[in-house]
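TL;DR need structure tokens for one chain.
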Amino acid sequence: MTKKEKLLTPQNDFIFKKIFAKEENKDMLKEFLEEVLEIKIYKLDAVEEAQMDKTLEENKGSRIDIQSEVNDNIVINIEMQISNEHNITSRSAFSVSGLLHNNLNKGQDYADAKISIVICILSFNIFKDGDYIVSASLRRDDTHKQVSDKIKIYYIQLPKFIKQKDKKRKKLAQWLYFISQEDKEELEMAVKENVKIAEAQKQYEELISDEGIQYQIFMREKTKADIKLAKNAAYKKGQEKGRKEERNKALKEKETIAKKLLKENVPIETISKATNLSKEDIEKLKNS
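>> reply
TL;DR here they are.
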């Protein structure tokens, strides 16, 4: 599936939020989270579509797709990523640490901080080995024993999931077939067997049939691409400016050495070999 095709699946953060961040679809998000985390959720609050803060974006702030509070002691961010920017592990570490910090109230004991979890749903693989769903936490290097249970990251690699075809975690597999929209046969089976999947699929099909929604999605992507191009151009311009300043600095240093050697009546040919300045340039320095 190409990137353009993925833009019109629930792998796209815009579509994902339109379905899972709706208050009336809370039961869908609840079931999905229960299957990923393998816990029973008895309370799910503050389900919301988080708005990206422009200041945060400029300062490498983590994009939040859906933020939710679970069982009073767990805070979760679900983040979608279609393009592999080769920074997802660093980015998710930044995200989970920010989540922990933001949810620690002033004066609150660190031991009472809420468990912070980031779930990254990826349209690409980042680990060659292991399962399609990989969890990471803070552990000791020598014994691998857990140091703290306050942070955890889940990486769900959709291409690896489609290839492995998980038969053990059936409900999780159903949701991932829905999100990926790649295995139509398995998706049809999931729709028949799970009423929540059926409703999610119905809403999804209604969304992508809306030309207004399609326009918003592609305009968002165009804006992202334009911003990326502008940043790259600015970076290259800055690099060229830096190189020019270095060249000017090196030239001035060579001219300073040449002037000193001219005062010592060193032959111009010798100075040229020592500084790599042309004889003509050295003549100009001598006359000036």
